[in-house]
Amino acid sequence: MHQRDRVSDAVVRRLPGYYRHLRELEAQGVLRLSSRALGERMGLTASQIRQDMNCFGGFGQQGYGYYVPNLKRRIGEILGVDTPHHMVIVGAGNIGRAVASYPTFRKEGFVVDALFDVDPALIGQVLQGVEVWPAGELRNYLAEHAVDIVVIATPADSARAVLDTAAEAGVRAVWNFAPVDLTAPDKMELGNVHLSDSLMALSFRMHERALMDEGGSGWRR
Amino acid sequence: MHQRDRVSDAVVRRLPGYYRHLRELEAQGVLRLSSRALGERMGLTASQIRQDMNCFGGFGQQGYGYYVPNLKRRIGEILGVDTPHHMVIVGAGNIGRAVASYPTFRKEGFVVDALFDVDPALIGQVLQGVEVWPAGELRNYLAEHAVDIVVIATPADSARAVLDTAAEAGVRAVWNFAPVDLTAPDKMELGNVHLSDSLMALSFRMHERALMDEGGSGWRR
Fold it and tell me: What ipTM was predicted for this assembly?
């Protein structure tokens, strides 16, 4: 498998949504579903769904559709939710705590083993069931524990140093919430979450709709 | 401007990134930039950048490139960051507080006027400089104040009721962090943030890379 065989970002962005909807369908006792019905639920076309599934070999049967439990299990395997992931969170502020207590992570196999912070008042405390370690211990901790994902929930100016420490320890993935664009070294996967991007996209749609309601000529000037 | 003239999600997803990078470039004193240089910085092709800009009339000049201050200002206008937005946050837990204290929102014009919570111990407190109101007052508050965006940071089972209250009050946008897929009424823009989607996408890339490193035949079976 070569670099060029990486699945496109657009497909990867949709995959977790498939998993969420299939989990809900399974919980509702739905066993079988056409690509059209799944598409209506997700706001996608049937053909887009078939194309997405074909990235992984396709799982439907002509004239039958998808068997929900199998498709959900297979997409879960593809996403890696069938194997446990050990995470540590650097930064025990609001974002760090929000990640530590996010309700669905644990049941999807993402387990937070430790929080790290520089604040002496927090060190040794147990927040959301997770112990807070001194930030200075991160390097040693990573050397001694198997950690799959380091979550960066620090201020912007500390984020790069945390990424470097994780990289030196051979951690395979970093999930960054600090409001800065980090660049991953070659051997690491990096997910940057910019909350303000999501807010600006919402703001954009509000203004676009206002233009539509005014019956104006749109964005082009 | 008709529904079909809405700018595609793919473009809207990239716009805040343009704004972020242009703001950094401006702060560094860069005045002029080619679409190729901007593309290299953002991991996009020059042609993709020109296509994105053409959705809004295009702002470059052949052979000159983009004038950074103008392009940043124009993209800011398109995103609506040049006009103040008033927000309230329902749910004063970790996610609500993280949004209330997110460092860049205020300077981009997104101002949090109030937090709402059901916990009597929190009501009346000032968290991140924002007063906590009783959740039961949300309806009255929205009737009496101009609120542009309602942020839902409640548990999943309360999210729908908050959305309905916002819709009845004529609020134009809801930004939902509860781990549930909400559907917006016709007159409202809705942004669903699923933190677990971002984590699963990262997990997917980790496993994809492991397959690549093993030299296997990839995802197709």
Answer: 0.91
